[in-house]
Design a protein that fits this description.
Two copies of one chain form a homodimer. With about 450 residues, the first copy, chain A, is an alpha/beta fold. The first copy, chain A, has helices spanning about 5-10, 10-20, 25-45, 50-65, 110-115, 155-160, 175-185, 215-225, 245-250, 270-285, 300-320, 330-340, 345-365, 395-400, 425-440, and strands at about 45-50, 80, 120-125, 165-170, 185-190, 210-215, 260, 290, 370, 400-410, 415-420, 445.
Amino acid sequence: MSQSAMLELTATEARDRMVQGDFTAEAYTQACLDQIAKRDGEVEAWAYLDPAHALAQARALDKQRASGNGTGALHGLPVGIKDIIDTADMPTQNGSALFKGYQPSKDATCVAVLRAAGAVIIGKTVTTELANTTPNKTKNPHNPAHTPGGSSSGSAAGVAARMFPLALGTQTGGSVIRPGSFCGVHAMKPTLGLVSRTGVTLQSHTLDTVGVYGRSLADLALITDALSQYDPSDAVSYERARPTVGATLAAGSVGTPRLGFFRSPAWDQAEPAAREALEAIVKKLGRSAEEVQMPALDGIIQHQANIMAAENSGYYGPLLARNPEGVSPNLTERLKNAAKVSAGDYVRSLAARDVLYGTVERVLGEFSALITLPSCGPAPKGLGSTGNAVFNAMWTYLGVPCVTLPLMTIGGMPCGVQLIGQRRDEGRLLAVARWVEEQVADRVVMR
Amino acid sequence: MSQSAMLELTATEARDRMVQGDFTAEAYTQACLDQIAKRDGEVEAWAYLDPAHALAQARALDKQRASGNGTGALHGLPVGIKDIIDTADMPTQNGSALFKGYQPSKDATCVAVLRAAGAVIIGKTVTTELANTTPNKTKNPHNPAHTPGGSSSGSAAGVAARMFPLALGTQTGGSVIRPGSFCGVHAMKPTLGLVSRTGVTLQSHTLDTVGVYGRSLADLALITDALSQYDPSDAVSYERARPTVGATLAAGSVGTPRLGFFRSPAWDQAEPAAREALEAIVKKLGRSAEEVQMPALDGIIQHQANIMAAENSGYYGPLLARNPEGVSPNLTERLKNAAKVSAGDYVRSLAARDVLYGTVERVLGEFSALITLPSCGPAPKGLGSTGNAVFNAMWTYLGVPCVTLPLMTIGGMPCGVQLIGQRRDEGRLLAVARWVEEQVADRVVMR
């Protein structure tokens, strides 16, 4: 099979081909590396990449398969790892001068789990500074004059540029879903606690969620199931016993789902073309979609901001105090503002979460999923900002699973459609997403 | 049996007598009510008391016993309930003008559990305003010119004045142990999470701990075991499967324990006579006690203060904003200061707890228990303050069990001796406490 044909495959398809022996993990990783050589001069998705080490991992997986010792669920699939996630064999530099060359002593739990499932840990992808808002070098693969979004910039851009079929990101505000929308790829932020954060640089223990990128909904299910594992050392991790996400998705038909079209408190901040495009998508869903009457969610976006600022200040404030020269002016200013959040406001923002989730859960229970925008529009022009997370913050705060589907093109740039589900029900969310993809069929294109 | 003989009994003894039929629950409750009539003019321990209702509960318990349907572990024992703990049949006024006449719709879980064990919920005992520091009307039964301590003022004073054999208090700083020391009774603050807080007015979800008062160590074990129950609706509650506290205490011999004499970072704030008295106690323990070399616990008292202030501000700040006239000048000032704690400091104070507990746990592991003061000395003269919690705050922060034993008299007023154990090991702590009581035998008396 030609390299370009390999790169056309989804992760799930490529895994199946490698298991069947149609091509080797080494050949597939080589195809990815050749694509990186071709595209990365423009995209700059990498914080760390050692092609020889990636190929060595792939050869070891080929050897394991040849030995008859079986293949993992992610056999031979290169996965890009956001550079705030620890790796025993590569530095974790957190997009920060303060961590230049920092080499962790062991893998984050999520990386160890990927390796055990047969993935090739291909390299470390670019993150904004400490996964906050200061942009890094990565460009949008669809147009290098546009931001790829952040903070998981390199992971989203790398999947979009076909440098690897799968990647890990993290979301505290909108850092998985927004880059997914901007780069035109499938992305999911699962329920808070589904994926272990042990070994991930935390900026907010209340909000931080490991998320995934892939080339299809099945790809999202594949890597999510590989990652899903109870971790007693992560306070938000939970014990689980349910069908896998992949099994629920494969079971297929959810009947005709009922979609709740939720403009969200952020609607006025969206670009008119994006609003129009989403309305066109909703129209395609016909009588299955209806406008949601959501009770007031007073202060929900501010609550997320309070918590993110408070915990950022708690973790990074001392870092800034010790090393002011190692922190960018943008992050310095943000941390100075974050230090002004009062503990009382933070306590109230934490306490409000379960109350607000109760309200949202009642609405979610009436629908198969909510449908809304994943970003204010397509990737804005310019590299000075990674864009606005206002369409993501409330879902991160509530800890619910979100997925973005590359179903719209606006002004020549991709823009996603976001679906939201109930906590701990990624399977149903992806099944509904598949129905939406089938229903929409052709992308909605706006000038 | 005469009323005065009944009042001499410990709760455990009285329960046994009532189960055997030596006297009825009604007679015992009547003895308590008569004692209240005698003593409460001076002590003022009550926020709410309805003698007829208490007697009705006692008669119902007598009837249940007579019917052959068995008796609970607390059969016929009147328990004083701090007035921040909800009761379905009596108001919960929180020592605050804002809650005057407030009638909860149901019992706090801890009260429901006591009722199920056959206790008489005799009435609501005086608390300081919202369990904070503004003193209320209660006087020290040993000398009404002195504070009983707080915030569990009425519970400690009522047990000391023999108005009831058992009581519930709560501790956020030093609100169970300090009044226990000042009033010369046995008191225990168990491990954070042993007793459910559902239905208790929270001022700090991180610190608040329901504690108990009794007339002996066996009494503390008796009521603690009755209260010990996993509550999934209280985030700090934990599942448990170990011998009961009472069984561990009854098993007796812990061999010769090894006591760690820990002056604590607060030692310099203690009165010289109290320091001298404790040193005399330690001397009586002979070679079983030795001075602890504790690693530095930097900032531990400040950490507790940050958390208490932050969560107080979170809960009561909006209350103050809405009802400034219903909050005392003292609490108003405290809440205004509390609002100044930054979220970053609060996050760091929360994060430091497990690290500091790791340090303390290693030391606790070398000893059977630590021994220190429960208060800076005996109850200070005057009713304008409930005293200093500096000998309590770090233990509340760490969530470890603490007990105070009435083993010293200083200037004619009682003062306790505090023992500290490892989390979740109240049984061993009380067994060591019994050994200490036997070893000390006669109170240490200082002028």
